[in-house]
Specification:
Blueprint: H1 2-61
Length: 62
Amino acid sequence: MAVVDLAQSCLLVGLVIHIWRIQSSLSSTLRLVAQLSDLVGQLLDDAAQLTDFVCQLLNTFM
């Protein structure tokens, strides 16, 4: 029975390590998604400012 218990313990440790690696990878992915979301938000803000500037520029010449 000791061999079976040892094998089960080794499998459990391997499973815990595998789950930890997956969780770590998901955390990194979520951080990258958050950074990308921030960059897209900044890009949209810049596009809105550029649109306002172009509209003001067109209004001055009309």
